[in-house]
Design a protein that fits this description.
Two copies of one chain form a homodimer. The first copy, chain A, is of the alpha/beta class. Chain A has seven helices and six strands. In chain A, the strands form two sheets. A four-stranded parallel sheet of chain A has the order 4-3-5-6, covered by helices on one side. The interface between A and B is large, with 59 and 59 residues.
Chain lengths: 202, 202
């Protein structure tokens, strides 16, 4: 028998770490050696945190943001929030940058993706029926479409706008234009086009 | 309550992943989101592999290479290996490249580090007494010092050579010179110096 490879328990850990995005075999080996050399505590904590996270973290039953167990997420559970403002985002991860900007105090709705017929993502795969339901329950609300400004994001916004037109709500979308702190020389032509088209009087 | 951060179970997982070497907060967030989006299996497998690795992997009681439980490592357990050749390395990880080169069929001894008085690594911290014992038990053996060619590696090799001189063994060290496939223009001056000093007749 040769010692050309690590013992089975190490190889299994390396294989599991390899599956993580952006982690190749060498990085997985390095992480494994680090975990074994740094005492049991770090590895045990990580192991327990992994199990806790996948068992406890769920999607908020109302908006689809991250939540714990059966509870509503912090935004939905907050009675001081403006229920007449509904911000529609692609993914739960999109909620955080908006919250951190401190500029929005309404509720969210996470679609779970954007329309992409080529990848098989049709309206039924997204949380669109639930969005319609929420808008119906809140007549006169404003729906802010905060989707990405790529082709699929635009197509999804257009589709949603068509569907929402029939309901008693106003529809808006995020302003498009120059990002803060950027010079004209760095802006691509589509961004510039939209910034010129959407120019505002000062 | 704001939704400015992830639920506690996600934050804990992010914190644990942050502790891994080379993993910043953004990478830890990305890994956490990936683990939550890819179903429970990957996270559960990783969690179990972590616990198995830290619980099962031990140092071989004879040579210090990675082993499972109380067993000898594959090299020490192999009766066909040449017990009169003892290769001394710094770390258990140094065994693998030697094994993979296919050029050595003796036994190993992992010191667990190299002498570095400034960092508080004195001979007592390394597995040197055990090495002396093994050499005494195998009179006439050859001890190959396969330590790094940096200052501490050289100092450790010198110290070991002095200690081993009193015992009935021959002492050798890895050849120093040009690495395979390297051009002269890439070689540093110390490597070149050693390659010239150690030149061999052809």
């Amino acid at each position: 028998m040769k010692a050309q490879d690590y013992p089975p328990a190490m190889r299994e850990l390396i294989d599991c770490l390899c599956r993580l995005p952006g982690t190749g075999r060498r990085s997985a080996e390095r992480l494994t050696l680090w975990l074994l050399q740094h005492g049991k505590t770090d590895a045990q904590n990580l192991s327990a945190a992994l199990i806790r996270a996948v068992e406890q973290i769920t999607a908020c039953p109302r908006c689809g943001f991250y939540s714990t167990g059966e509870e509503l997420c912090p935004a939905c559970a907050d009675p001081t929030r403006d229920a007449s403002l509904l911000c529609v985002v692609e993914q739960p991860t999109d909620v955080l940058p908006i919250e951190r900007s401190g500029s929005f105090h309404g509720l969210y709705h996470c679609l779970g993706g954007k329309l992409s017929p080529l990848d098989g993502v049709m309206p039924e795969q997204l949380s669109i029926p639930k969005l319609m339901e929420r808008v119906k329950e809140q007549p006169g609300c404003e729906v802010i479409l905060a989707l990405g400004s790529d082709v699929e994001g635009d197509a999804t916004a257009l589709y949603l706008a068509e569907q929402l037109e029939k309901l008693p709500c106003t529809i808006s979308r995020l302003a498009q234009g120059m990002p803060a702190g950027a010079g004209l020389s760095q802006a691509d032509s589509i961004t510039l086009l939209r910034a010129i088209q959407g120019r505002t009087r000062i």
